[in-house]
Structures are given as C-alpha cells and as structure tokens.
Design a protein that fits this description.
Number of helices: 14
Radius of gyration: 21 Å
Shape: globular
Number of strands: 12
Structural class: alpha/beta
Amino acid sequence: MMNFFYRSNQELKQLSYTEHFDYLKNLVPVHLNHFAEEMRDLGFDCSEVVYDLELLQKSWANENGVTYGWHSWKIDILMEQINFYRPGIIYLQNLEPVPFWFLKRIKKIFPFVKKVVAFKGNLPNRIHELRGVDYVFAGHPDILNDCLNNGIPTELFYHCFDEKILPILANWEVNRKIEKNTFTFVGYSGFAGYGHSHNERYRLLKKLLENSDLKIWSNEQSTIPNSFLPSDAKPLSDEFPESCSSGVFGLPLYSILKNSNVVFNKHAEICNGNVGNMRLFESTGVGTCLLTDSGSNIKDLFTTDKEVVTYNSEDELFEKLDYLLNNDSVRKEIGEAGQKRTLKDHSLRIRCKQISETLLKLI
C-alpha cells in the first residue's frame, strides 16, 4: 500500500472506486482510509492506493479510462495513478509488493515526485530493499541500525493501533454471536512464512497447545522451506485440529483479541532480543491482557507487568499464564492499563503526527 501526498490538483463489481474503499473499510479498517483521513486532518492532501488489490485498482482504471495489460495491471495502473495524482511525496506502507526496479527509478519517471518515503516494519538485514528511498520510518531497532549503518536517513517508528477501530468493532459485533476465549494467539505459527524466523514460536505454541486451553488462528503450509524445525514437524493444525482455525484479518481478528482473557505473543528470532510487532498494539489497543516475551526495549513501549505481562523463559510463561487466568481483577486491570497506554502513546493519530513533522522537514 502507498499514499500520495500532493498539492491541490445489487453487486460488488458494480461499486465505484470510492464505494469499494468504503466496503473494504469494514473488512480491514486498520489499513484503509484512516491513515489518509488522519493525514488530511493534519493539513496534507493525501490519497491512498492499494497497489496489488485487483478489484479496487481495476475499478479505478475503468472509471478513469485507463487501459492495462492482463499480466501487468499492477504496475500499469499504479503508473497512471501517480501521473493522475501527481504527488510530491510517495509514502510506502509496505515495500514488499512494489518492484525493486520501479522503486529505484520512480523519481526519474515522474520528476514531480520529490521524495519517496517508506515504512519498514519487519525483516531487518535487507537493506537492499531501501535503495531509492529517501527516508525510512524504521519499525524496529534493528532496521533503524541497518539504515544508520548504511547512510539512509531514518527514525524509529513503531507499529500502532488505529483507535477508530473501536467504535467500528463495537458496531460490527452487534447481533453477532461472539465467542469468548480463555487464551488465544493470532498470527504466524512458525509453520508458514519467513522460514526459520519463527521456530521458537512454533515450539512454544506446541507446548502451550499440549498444556493449556490455547486456541490459534493461523494460515499454515503443508511444508515450510528454510526451516530449522525437525524433519518430522507438522503444521499445528494437523496435530491440534480442535484448537486451530484458519487465519483471520480485519474486524474478526480484533474481535477475537478483544474477547480473549489473555493473548499470547512471541517475537521472531530475527528481532535479536528487541520487541515491536503488531500484536503488541493490536491486543492492548482492544483492552486485552497481553502475555508477551520481553525485550531490551520493552520499557520504551509499556510498563512491564502493569500494562503488559512479560516472560523471559518457558517456566515463567506458564507461571504467569496460570496466575493471570486465576486472577480476573488483575488481568482486567492490566488490560485496561495497556489500552490506556496504547491510546495515549501508540495510536495511529500519534504516529501520523510524527510522520507529518518529518514530512514538513523533508519538503
């Protein structure tokens, strides 16, 4: 997804481009519209483009008389959109889908683009992805260090929680049967995505499934490449089918987190002892008690064992889980304190203010 900052200038398939955005907003509100809304409130002209969402992009193309190739529609439509909006700054919220060659040449192709800014929230040690980017909002201390060591202008910029989700979620849950869960995890199980990066998470999840009431929502693969897991390892959904469900996103994800007593979190090994994944802010944002692995920078984000509960070992994990599940008032107090901290310091509005201050310096 990318955002353009510029100076003034019956069936789902039948919806207009704007109507598609409104429809999708109800599915994945953390990613659609609210960022642009916040930036507009701060005085920027901002339009949002979901580069690889076929239905949305082709809707825009058809409304604007844009032709495209069947195999090259992504880049064809994107280039037409850049020419249409004529942004002074392009802000990339996700680097992975955009072709590397395009990122390197974008300012030569479109001279009116003065700055390309990007948020990189995961996978450190891939500095080559940032060639051609003028400024990086680094979502993790290791990514910050990567940029600093390679002379790329950068600042630390953690993930956040979109506070506008809360009223939307409350309304979405009306008249729906909402399941309450004791202990949950939503995300990569370690048997899908990024190879060996989540082996320790896989091991802990398996141990928790064997010894607790943990329920998991995760999209797993039948095999996993580049993994250090034992050769006989299986997807957790194969070993624990009654406790595992397919991955969820958008409002269903937030509803699961909100209606859990405790949410489990474990960062990937590539985080090198630092923390900062989305689950920290998603879980606390909806007011649920989060049980997360500790890290050297956790105190920069939350007060441990008051706003989130941390563990440093497997034994401590089980000890604190048992305590939380048997002390309702303590658990609820921590959930409320975590939410208060997230809404105060880690909201989308707060992060957008940080972005706006940086953009004003860049231009």
